[in-house]
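Q: Please design a sequence for this.
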């Protein structure tokens, strides 16, 4: 598989998705993630894709934590690098 091409195609499809079912996209994303979390290879070991989805979930939780910490400090602005550094350990797993 050409990973770059696959990612580019997926991003393009997502950018051009229909906006009329906005609430349902969250449901579809959660369903897709649930399928991928249990995805295993031929040897029945969990796939790297499943690990990637688990990372996405952990990063989402950490981003929420980052936002809550900002709110608790009364801050509304931040640098992207600060947010990135907050989640970098998960991305590097």
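A: Design:
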């Amino acid at each position: 598989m050409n990973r770059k091409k696959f990612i580019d195609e997926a991003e393009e499809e997502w950018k051009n998705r229909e906006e009329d079912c906005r609430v349902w996209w969250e449901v579809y994303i959660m369903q897709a993630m649930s399928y991928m979390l249990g995805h295993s290879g031929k040897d029945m070991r969990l796939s790297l894709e499943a690990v990637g989805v688990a990372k996405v979930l952990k990063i989402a939780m950490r981003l929420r934590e980052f936002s809550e910490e900002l709110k608790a400090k009364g801050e509304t602005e931040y640098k992207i690098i600060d947010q990135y550094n907050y989640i970098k350990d998960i991305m590097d797993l």
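Q: Thanks. Anything notable?
A: Helices lie at 3-15, 22-37, 48-72, 80-91. Residues 48-72 form the longest helix (25 residues).
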